[in-house]
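Exercise 7. Given the encoded structure of a 118-residue chain, write a plausible sequence.
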């Protein structure tokens, strides 16, 4: 599976950004999809995921602010990020779990930079 993330950029604290991830493959609707992020000097961390059945999961610090969604017709997954905080600054990666769950991510996109200014 090839993944192409886009939509990153610079936002002010309290602002919004929407990340997109386009996936290759004819069985996208069977994939679990996720978003991860890596801030400078830190390890990559889980942000959000959506299973093939549509169940969604969020890291605690983004609950209520971020929303993950998918459009199987467009082979795409999205991350709507509202009420952004400077601590959300990171490179954001999308990932695919071809088993359909959200625990075995084995395909990764190239990452898109999100910078939130205070």
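Solution.
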């Amino acid at each position: 599976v090839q993944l192409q993330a886009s939509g990153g950029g610079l936002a002010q604290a309290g602002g919004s950004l929407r990340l997109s991830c386009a996936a290759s493959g004819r069985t996208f609707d069977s994939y679990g999809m996720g978003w991860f992020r890596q801030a400078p000097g830190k390890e990559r961390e889980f942000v959000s995921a959506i299973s093939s059945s549509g169940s969604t999961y969020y890291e605690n610090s983004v609950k209520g602010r971020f929303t993950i969604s998918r459009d199987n017709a467009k082979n795409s997954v999205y991350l709507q990020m509202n009420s952004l905080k400077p601590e959300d600054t990171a490179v954001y990666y999308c990932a695919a779990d071809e088993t359909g769950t959200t625990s075995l991510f084995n395909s990764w996109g190239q990452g898109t930079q999100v910078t939130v200014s205070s």
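Remark. The chain has a mean pLDDT of 96. Students should compare their own answers with the one above.
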